[in-house]
TrEMBL record:
Name of the featured protein: Putative sensory transducer protein YfmS
Any GO CC annotation of this UniProt entry: membrane
Gene that this polypeptide is encoded by: yfmS
Keyword Transmembrane helix: no
Coiled coil: 149-176, 219-274
PANTHER family assigned to the protein according to its UniProt record, in alphabetical order: LYSOZYME-LIKE PROTEIN-RELATED, METHYL-ACCEPTING CHEMOTAXIS PROTEIN MCPB
């Protein structure tokens, strides 16, 4: 008789205080209390409700049945297909002073918010992976651009060398034109001294001087064009340098973005672990 009173008293006490403890949980949950055969009480908070009516028999081989049979705590997670909402359950045996199992108390916690959190984490993780991929692609493009600019800069230097060689050739032609002009003048003097006999020689002297003047004019035109090319090459060189610096900065920024996203991924992993603790 004493044992029967203690059993009822302990289970009745749990039934009385459970509604109070239910309000301590900041999420949707359900608390069920049983004896060794059937449900004695069932309390729900929020949208999460289980069909555990008072007097309903405990299904054989169920989790609660195993708690009563083994006297051990049972923890498990049920998918939303079972009750419409995914939830985590902890079932604890209730024992009397002798250690005999007289019932069970089970807490079912809705994992709806955790499911939303995990979905948000997956979305954030996918987005961060896309950002990382884009940043890495951008960095690769920047590095490739930097290499191309190095090649262009090398070609620019080669062109400058060719222009300098062109100037050397022009100076050589200029000297030839000058010497040819002098030669033409000397030939004209000698033709004048020769009189009629030097008439043909005088014609040749005139042609030499014409060729000298034409060569000198051509050299001036080429020098003008060369100078314009050098000025444009100087502008191109400045733009190449700007682009080269921009490419380097772009690659550096992309690497910084990638590093920041990697840190974010670590936080996502931590957050995912935390979401599974509840």
């Amino acid at each position: 008789m004493q044992t029967q009173i203690e059993k009822k008293s302990l289970l009745d006490t749990l039934i009385e205080v459970t509604p109070i403890f239910l309000n301590l949980f900041p999420f949707d949950c359900n608390i069920s209390i049983t004896d060794t055969e059937c449900f004695l009480a069932n309390y729900s908070k929020g949208e999460f409700r289980l069909d555990q009516q008072k007097g309903k028999k405990i299904p054989e081989n169920s989790r609660l049945w195993k708690v009563i049979e083994t006297g051990e705590i049972q923890k498990y997670i049920l998918p939303k297909e079972v009750y419409g909402v995914p939830f985590k359950s902890i079932s604890v045996p209730v024992k009397d002073e002798t250690g005999k199992v007289i019932g069970c108390i089970a807490l079912g916690m809705s994992l709806k918010n955790q499911e939303r959190l995990e979905q948000a984490i997956k979305t954030l993780s996918g987005t961060s992976e896309e950002v990382v991929a884009s940043a890495e692609e951008l960095a690769a493009s920047a590095r490739e651009l930097s290499k191309c600019m190095e090649i262009v800069d090398s070609m620019k230097k080669e062109m400058e060398e060719q222009i300098n060689k062109t100037e050397e050739i022009l100076n050589f032609i200029k000297n030839i034109a000058m010497n040819s002009n002098i030669l033409g003048i000397n030939a004209a003097i000698e033709a004048a001294r020769a009189g009629k006999e030097g008439l043909g020689f005088n014609i040749i002297a005139d042609e030499i001087r014409k060729m000298s003047r034409s060569s000198a004019d051509s050299v001036k035109n080429i020098e003008k064009i060369t100078e314009e090319i050098k000025q444009k090459m100087s502008k191109i060189s400045n733009e190449i340098q700007k682009t080269f610096e921009l490419a380097k900065n772009q690659a550096f920024t992309s690497e910084e973005i990638t590093a920041a996203i990697e840190e974010l991924n670590k936080l996502i992993t931590d957050l995912e672990s935390i979401s599974k603790i509840v």
